[in-house]
UniProtKB/TrEMBL annotation:
<dbReference type="Pfam" id="PF00528">
    <property type="entry name" value="BPD_transp_1"/>
</dbReference>
<feature type="domain" description="ABC transmembrane type-1">
    <location>
        <begin position="86"/>
        <end position="287"/>
    </location>
</feature>
<feature type="transmembrane region" description="Helical">
    <location>
        <begin position="121"/>
        <end position="143"/>
    </location>
</feature>
<dbReference type="InterPro" id="IPR035906">
    <property type="entry name" value="MetI-like_sf"/>
</dbReference>
<keyword id="KW-0472">Membrane</keyword>
<keyword id="KW-1003">Cell membrane</keyword>
<feature type="transmembrane region" description="Helical">
    <location>
        <begin position="21"/>
        <end position="44"/>
    </location>
</feature>
<feature type="transmembrane region" description="Helical">
    <location>
        <begin position="90"/>
        <end position="109"/>
    </location>
</feature>
<comment type="similarity">
    <text>Belongs to the binding-protein-dependent transport system permease family.</text>
</comment>
<keyword id="KW-1133">Transmembrane helix</keyword>
<keyword id="KW-0813">Transport</keyword>
<feature type="transmembrane region" description="Helical">
    <location>
        <begin position="264"/>
        <end position="286"/>
    </location>
</feature>
<dbReference type="InterPro" id="IPR000515">
    <property type="entry name" value="MetI-like"/>
</dbReference>
<protein>
    <submittedName>
        <fullName>Carbohydrate ABC transporter permease</fullName>
    </submittedName>
</protein>
<feature type="transmembrane region" description="Helical">
    <location>
        <begin position="197"/>
        <end position="219"/>
    </location>
</feature>
<feature type="transmembrane region" description="Helical">
    <location>
        <begin position="155"/>
        <end position="176"/>
    </location>
</feature>
<keyword id="KW-0812">Transmembrane</keyword>
């Protein structure tokens, strides 16, 4: 009798376990398809003509000739404006990234491993500012930069992008939990000043968090739309994310009044979208190892 009950219990647990796994698998499959299908369609759209995109099967690839035509149309738009926009995006993202690293890493180290007046207040202010949406700060920043005459200058984008309190907080968490304090104390006993302790001991051990802050900063800067849209009145200074709006406005499918010599077809717009996200994807692929190390850092306290 006991054996029969045990078999029934095992069977019920097994069935319920399989049912739960089936439901979870189905939900995951739905989400994968929900996100994967548009991406596949977008990639295949770049290889088609405008007519083929509408008439042909949506998930059949086009041809290299159509891809080359779309490429030529994209980079010939407004005498090579797309190339200028990509160069501007690289300038803004990398310039802001450099300033962010120079400011955020020492700031996080100072708040984590040194003692000074108003330290707790600065940490609380950092956490509060992290909760404020970036778009809410664009208008006051615009008014400030307008007073000093920087509107339309690359610095009007680079300087606000460099303000990255999330990077300071990440660095603070890392230095608070992952750097042996005894090691830093030994360096101080040996005669190292605070700057030497940071540059020679702490910074070489902080490679994972530096990579993590750099990645988040670069992605945020590259994808930033609203700030450069407000700060840069001229198309020559646009980054690629803002430049996409010009391409969209020149696409007859979205703006029927734009039909003309500079009109952009849907496959060309799809190609522009793919190219605009390609740098982020490349950076992610080459920095996966450091990103994983940075995200798992601080999981255990020394």
């Amino acid at each position: 009798m006991t054996t029969v009950n045990s078999d029934r219990t095992t069977r019920r647990v097994g069935v319920s376990g399989w049912s739960a796994r089936t439901i979870v698998g189905a939900v995951v499959l739905v989400f994968v398809l929900f996100f994967a299908i548009p991406i596949v369609w977008l990639l295949l759209a770049t290889t088609k003509s405008a007519h083929g995109l509408v008439v042909d099967n949506a998930f059949l690839p086009g041809g290299l000739d159509d891809l080359r035509t779309n490429w030529d149309q994209l980079f010939g738009f407004q005498d090579g404006a797309v190339t200028t926009w990509l160069a501007n995006s690289a300038l803004y993202a990398l310039g802001a990234l450099l300033v962010t690293l120079v400011a955020s890493i020492p700031a996080g180290y100072a708040m984590a491993l040194t003692r000074f007046r108003l330290r707790r207040l600065l940490l609380v202010l950092t956490l509060i500012v992290m909760l404020i949406p970036n778009t809410a700060l664009v208008l006051p920043i615009f008014l400030e930069l307008n007073v000093v005459g920087l509107i339309g200058h690359p610095l009007s984008v680079i300087l606000p992008m460099s303000f990255f309190p999330f990077g300071v907080y990440l660095t603070y968490i890392y230095f608070s939990t992952s750097i042996p304090r005894d090691l830093l104390a030994a360096a101080r006993v040996d005669g190292c000043g605070e700057a030497q302790v940071f540059t020679r001991i702490a910074l070489p051990l902080a490679t994972p968090i530096v990579a993590l802050v750099a990645f988040f900063s670069f992605v945020q800067n590259w994808n930033n739309f609203f700030l450069p849209f407000v700060m840069l009145p001229s198309s020559d200074g646009y980054p690629v994310q803002v430049g996409l709006t010009s391409l969209l406005a020149s696409t007859p499918a979205f703006n029927p009044t734009s039909a003309g010599t500079q009109s952009v077809q849907l496959p060309t717009l799809a190609l522009a979208t793919v190219i605009s996200v390609l740098p982020v994807l490349i950076v992610f692929l080459f920095s996966q190892r450091f990103l994983v190390a940075g995200m798992t850092a601080g999981g255990t306290k020394e």
